[in-house]
Amino acid sequence: MAQLRAFESAAKKGHEMPEIVCYEKQDDWGGQWNFTWRNGTDKYGEPVHSSMYRNLWSNGPKEGLEFAEYTFDEHFGRPISSYPPREALWDYIDGRARKSDVKKYVKFAHAVRWVDFDETSKTFTVNVENLRTGETESGKFDHVIVGTGHFTFPNVPEFDGMETFPGQIIHAHEFRGAESLADKDVLLIGASYSAEDIGTQAYKMGARTVTFSYRSAPMGYEWPEGMEEQPLVEKFDGSTAYFINGLQRTFDAVILCTGYQHHYPFLPSNLALKSPNNVYPANLYRGVVWEGNNQLFYLGAQDQWFTFNMFDAQAWYVRDLILGERELPSREEQRTSIDAWLERFHALKDSDDQIDFQADYIRDLIEQTDYPMFDLDTVAEIFKRWGRTKKEDILNYRDVTYTSVMTGTKAAQHHTPWMLEIDDSLERYLSTPEGDEVRDIWEGREAAQPR
Ligand SMILES: Cc1cc2nc3c(=O)[nH]c(=O)nc-3n(C[C@H](O)[C@H](O)[C@H](O)COP(=O)(O)OP(=O)(O)OC[C@H]3O[C@@H](n4cnc5c(N)ncnc54)[C@H](O)[C@@H]3O)c2cc1C
Ligand SMILES: NC(=O)c1ccc[n+]([C@@H]2O[C@H](COP(=O)([O-])OP(=O)(O)OC[C@H]3O[C@@H](n4cnc5c(N)ncnc54)[C@H](OP(=O)(O)O)[C@@H]3O)[C@@H](O)[C@H]2O)c1
């Protein structure tokens, strides 16, 4: 969506639009934000793409992801809170893209099956299946831009004895809602965003206990009673998990929050990015140009502090390369640049360093283009403050508000504290409820299940 918007923005300034086709395997756009109740396979028998769950709210402040050329104020017409539910964010990205009339370039329900590059003609052949008709087609392209995301193909480790566990074992990719975890003892393996957020959802929906199991390091938050972190699970025997510190505990459900793989099944190995989830995947000049073939680009391949506005910065830069507004340096200079960024990347000590690194990376891209520069240092500070608020109060950090660097607008306080808000719909989010019915429901539940 960022790439289409970037081309359209250039067209409005008088550039000739190249011939563009965007293949999207789902029936609508929005990627991860195009939520589905399905898991496993979609209605076409394809692997379900989105890893989002019904009650997902943004886990970072929206002031960190705001588009510089389509603000939240412009979309919603009034201040909203800093941590919107997923429907509100889908509405925002959909609104921006709809405004620019780029949907006409998208062939929906078209899955890219295989991409080949011909060294003689220097063109790609892209083979695609129309999922509605089953017909296959192929097209020739000078450039291919991969924007398929990298939080879809789960990393699924195995622990001894898992096959004897009588309850449900799922990966976070398949998780769709925490309501069924009420009164359950839940084990989450992993120590990053999915573990933290799904564990919190489980607690919010009344899980009896929530146990996190970490491999490298605990998240280290001050968890309330009933939530705790333990080191790695060694094995399972029936419903009992054995941890490496000797602890044994029984569970009703296990959720593997063990991350995702970069996986591009439609690309030959010489074109497919192979990387762990980090802020500077190797072999991408300026984080977007495939070193081995400069006609191939990747958007959003990085681990993400910044998201939507970083994708824009990347898309604007890729657009200018394709339109001939910018020239790529020689292969040697590209490697020198990649090495310099990698050297800095390897020296990053903590999350604050990573945030500054990503801010500098985006600044470098925006400086090459006409994308509106924004106050990246202040956004970096917002991300760092976000980290501190989580340390202070992991259950209630979503009640904090920030000020937009794009508009100067201070976010509104959501009408209901996040821990008490059990209706995640856009309608409820934008409403002005009277009385305190949610608090009443919550207090009723608290009375029924004292923690
Ligand atoms: C559970 C979860 C929660 C998140 N929450 C937040 C958040 O709160 N705030 C935030 O800023 N970011 C969040 N993110 C990060 C998220 O990655 C980005 O916000 C964003 O959605 C990434 O955009 P993308 O276009 O790179 O990839 P995606 O959103 O994954 O979109 C990729 C698109 O490619 C399509 N596709 C894939 N393969 C093919 C194929 N072979 N042929 C055709 N089409 C194909 C998919 O159908 C999909 O529409 C979250 C991610 C996850 C997994
Ligand atoms: N509400 C929200 O908005 C929300 C909710 C969930 C996720 N997300 C987004 O989704 C994306 C992915 O987050 P993620 O947490 O799924 O992935 P992630 O950040 O890549 O973290 C993966 C975790 O899995 C652990 N792990 C990997 N292999 C393991 C193994 N064999 N045994 C034990 N632990 C293992 C890793 O531990 P090590 O440290 O040891 O490697 C790490 O803690 C992020 O962009 C995040 O922001 C957002």
UniProtKB/TrEMBL annotation:
Recorded coiled-coil stretches: none
SUPFAM superfamilies the UniProt entry points to: FAD/NAD(P)-binding domain
EC number: 1.14.13.148
InterPro entries, per the entry: FAD/NAD-bd_sf, Flavin_mOase-like, FMO-like
Pfam family, one: FMO-like
UniProt cofactor(s): FAD
Gene Ontology MF terms in the entry: flavin adenine dinucleotide binding; N,N-dimethylaniline monooxygenase activity; NADP binding; trimethylamine monooxygenase activity
Domain of life assignment: Bacteria
Keywords in alphabetical order: FAD, Flavoprotein, Monooxygenase, NADP, Oxidoreductase
Family, as annotated: Belongs to the FMO family.
PANTHER family per record: DIMETHYLANILINE MONOOXYGENASE
Protein name as catalogued: Trimethylamine monooxygenase
Organism: Corynebacterium marinum DSM 44953
Taxonomic lineage from the root: Bacteria, Bacillati, Actinomycetota, Actinomycetes, Mycobacteriales
